[in-house]
From TrEMBL:
Residues annotated to bind substrate: R83, L121, E180
EC top class named in words: lyase
EC number: 4.1.3.40
Descriptive protein name: Probable chorismate pyruvate-lyase
Length: 196
C-alpha cells in the first residue's frame, strides 16, 4: 500500500502596509530603503553611477501565485507577463525585482513593457506622468517561501530572512505589480527615519 505524504503548500509572505507595520518592526539598516517612495532605480544609480546595470533572469508568460492573483484582481488561471531581474552594482546583486503585468495592461502604452531588455522598469514608470503608484507594502520573506528561493538563487550562504516591498502601479487605470527584494550585499542606508 502506497501512502502519499502531505506536502504543505508554501505560505506566501505576509505583506503589511505602512504605517500598520511599525518602524520598530523593521530592520534599522533597511528602514530607509523600505520606506522610500521614490524611484529605486534612480537611487541605485546615484550610489553606483558607472557600474549599475540590470541582469534579466527570466521573462515571459506565467501564472501568478494565489497571493499575486488576489492583489491584481485576477483569476488563478490568468496569464501575466512576468519579469524577474537583478539590479547590480559592480556585478554584485543588490536587489531582486519581480514584476507581474496582466495581459490587459499590455495594450496601448503598456505594450512597451515586454520589450525593456536590460532597461530598468523604474526608468519607464517614474518618467511617465500618466503612471500612478499605489501604497507600498512591506514583508519579511523567510526561507521556505518561493520568493525567498527565487530572490536568493545562486547565493552560497542565503540568510534565513530577507525584506522586500511591493507596489501596484497603474498605466491608464490598468494594473501591474512590482516587488523589490533587498539582497544581503545592498549597502546600509543612513537612518533617515527615527523610531516611534
Amino acid at each position: 500500500m502506497h501512502t502519499h505524504r502531505f506536502v504543505p503548500r508554501p505560505v506566501p509572505p505576509r505583506w503589511h502596509s505602512y504605517p500598520r507595520l511599525s518602524r520598530r518592526d523593521l530592520p534599522v539598516t533597511l528602514t530607509d530603503w523600505l520606506l522610500d517612495s521614490g524611484s529605486l532605480t534612480r537611487r541605485l544609480r546615484q550610489l553606483c553611477p558607472s557600474q549599475f546595470r540590470v541582469r534579466v533572469l527570466w521573462q515571459g508568460w506565467n501564472r501568478p501565485s494565489v497571493d499575486e492573483a488576489r492583489v491584481l484582481g485576477l483569476r488563478l488561471d490568468a496569464w501575466v507577463w512576468t519579469r524577474e531581474v537583478q539590479l547590480l552594482c559592480d556585478d554584485q546583486p543588490w536587489v531582486f525585482a519581480r514584476t507581474l503585468i496582466p495581459a490587459r495592461t499590455l495594450r496601448g502604452r503598456g505594450c512597451r513593457l515586454t520589450r525593456l531588455g536590460t532597461r530598468p522598469l523604474g526608468e519607464v514608470l517614474f518618467t511617465d506622468p500618466g503612471v500612478r503608484r499605489g501604497p507600498v507594502e512591506i514583508a519579511r520573506i523567510v526561507a521556505g517561501q518561493c520568493l525567498h528561493q527565487r530572490a536568493l538563487a545562486g547565493c552560497t550562504e542565503p540568510p534565513d530572512a530577507i525584506w522586500g516591498r511591493r507596489s501596484m502601479f497603474w498605466i491608464a487605470k490598468r494594473p501591474l505589480l512590482v516587488c523589490e527584494i533587498f539582497l544581503p550585499d545592498l549597502p546600509v542606508a543612513p537612518a533617515c527615519y527615527r523610531p516611534d
